[in-house]
TrEMBL record:
The keyword Membrane does not apply. ATP binds at residues 8-15. It comes from Clostridium gasigenes. GTP binds at residues 59-62. This is UPF0042 nucleotide-binding protein. Keywords: ATP-binding, GTP-binding, Nucleotide-binding. The keyword Nucleotide-binding applies. Transmembrane segments: none annotated.
Length: 294
């Protein structure tokens, strides 16, 4: 089990660090009273391996309970329970700027100067910082930089391409463009099987329609160019810290062309070792229905 205690200064990025850990499959608990750490650790051990990556956020928000942290750490050590401490830090100047931008008060200086709260917090956290296994100074970090640093220290390097989840979504323009789409491709320029009597009853998931759509020269050119574009975009989206990508493929009714092409794109992405899945939003819709659907 990998058991991480996330702590550090208020405003140093603990929330974003925790989100990164959640994206990597960690079971995260925020602001757990330190006295409960031993009980929680024991519960995780009894999960028969179902919980094998855990992160606990412990900081001065716990008030007087924070003083129990070292007692709990001693208990874990005596039980030979392995844990790591991640400490998030930042310069006073950067912390003050972040608090002013967020218009939040420092938890140790609710009615006073932010710098006073920061000084007091540094004093309280000095000992736990000295015990930290990893210290990350986020003073010059953007969100994407922190996520990259978290992945470097706590991610699974064996599956680097699975950090971005890709959904290839077919839809019909007559029912509206999906509101969560990141990329939208209009494939209505491809000859429509709907107007071929022997193909109309089928969908793009059926071989007759699929073979017809993929045999078109327009489709071949589109798939080649789209693959090149996605292979360029996906690594750059990952670099910027994006965790989910929705690629929407639209035709008129969302039943023939978009379905066949969405399936083809999903297959291409999987062959390129990306974590892709396909979904068909409007494949079962009544073609005579024209209500907007988001």
């Amino acid at each position: 089990m990998r058991f991480i205690i996330v702590t550090g200064l208020s405003g140093a990025g603990k929330t974003e660090a925790t989100r990164s850990l959640e994206d990597m499959g960690y079971f995260c608990v925020d602001n757990l009273p330190p006295k409960l750490i031993p009980k929680f650790a024991e519960a995780c051990l009894q999960s028969d391996g179902k919980i094998n990556k855990v992160a606990l956020v412990i900081d001065i928000r716990g008030g007087i309970f924070f003083e129990d942290l070292f007692e709990s750490l001693v208990y874990l050590k005596n039980q030979d329970f392995q844990y790591e401490i991640l400490f998030l830090d930042a310069s006073d100047e950067k912390l003050v700027k972040r608090f002013k931008e967020s218009r939040r008060s420092h938890p140790l200086a609710a009615n006073g100067r932010i710098t006073t709260g920061i000084d007091e917090e540094r004093r309280k956290l000095r000992e736990v910082k000295d015990r930290a296994d990893i210290i990350i100074d986020t003073s010059k970090y953007e969100i994407r930089d922190l996520r990259e640093e978290m992945n470097k220290n706590y991610g699974d390097e064996k599956e680097p391409k699975k950090q971005l989840s890709i959904t290839v979504l077919s839809f019909g323009f007559k029912y509206g463009i999906p509101v969560d789409a990141d990329l939208v491709f209009d494939v209505r320029f491809i000859p429509n099987p709907f107007y071929i009597p022997e193909l109309k009853p089928y969908s793009g998931g059926d071989r007759p329609v699929r073979d017809y759509v993929l045999a078109q020269e327009e489709t071949k050119g589109f798939l080649t160019r789209t693959e090149d574009m996605l292979k360029f975009l996906i690594p750059n989206y990952k670099k910027e810290g994006k965790r989910q990508l929705i690629v929407a493929i639209g035709c008129t009714g969302g039943r023939h062309r978009s379905v066949a092409i969405a399936n083809a794109i999903e297959e291409i992405l999987c062959e390129d070792k990306f974590n892709a899945r396909v979904e068909h939003r409007d494949i079962g819709e009544d073609p005579n229905k024209g209500a907007k659907k988001l």
